[in-house]
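To whoever is on call:

I kicked off a structure prediction for a single chain this morning and the downstream step that reads the tokens threw a length-mismatch warning. I double-checked the sequence; it's 297 residues and nothing unusual in it as far as I can see. Pasting both halves so you can look.
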Amino acid sequence: MSVKDAQRPWTEEELITNHGFTPLHWDGINPIPLVDRDGRVYAVLAGRPSDAFYVASADKVFKLLTHEVSVHELPKAAHIHKRGTFPVFNVGYTYSNGDQEPSIRKNGNFENMLSGVVNNSDVQRLLSYASAALQLWAPRLYEYFDTKLRWFYGHWHRGTKPIFAQLVYPSAAFNMGGKVRTFVHRDVMNIPFGWCAITALGQFNPDKSAKLILWEPKLVIRFPHASTVHIPSATITHSNTAVDGADVRLSLTQYAPGGLFRWIDNGGRTETQLKKEDPDLYADMQVAKSTRWQFGL
């Protein structure tokens, strides 16, 4: 696919008519597992609790993020990414090739603003639901995340604490700006077999706006406000249809950076350090890579 096609808004009609996609009219509440031809669950439309208090929390989070955008002049750097034209702030832990150890993402003058957002009780409730849904639908993956991160918090800079209390994801993105539509993309820096959690927020008509497109399964999915989905974002290509007219849409994304978990799996070492210090374990780790994708099923 060309860059132009990856960035343009695809319509549900053309995907169905010209490319053989199947529409999925999801209510956004009741969970729907997505299953491959071998009966394996590869993603889940996790939905949301049916109680009105949860929706009220989602409404408050939408208003909070909208307010923060209105009172802060967002930096140009927040708009520079490959997923779309909307501003995004990433928080949590990360690790990149060439680093000797992980680091906490920094957001300059916006640290206080983001700290307030992260510690907001309504934000915490939405993010907590995503962790609970992951534990229910992908228990092996949840256990892997939980075990590795507990080791990380206990061994890296003693006393390191989770950015998000009681959550299994180490990183999150707050996608702001009101017209959040992602380009066609895969999040290749995330852990390959991991699932990321996406929660839609806004005042929009889900029958017309920002439907979730999963390209390999050829699905176009209705994705309402306050609902959460889990997808293997590093391996399944995904995007959204356009945000219609005066509709307003934001989203929250929780994810697991692949580099961070490689560093943890290596016992708190780079691959170069591991190969030098423990060649047998390094060899075992290389072999294990061929089957690790199964944790996501």
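Update from on-call: the warning came from a stale cache, not from the record. Cleared it. Sanity check on the structure: The two ends are 27 Å apart (CA to CA).
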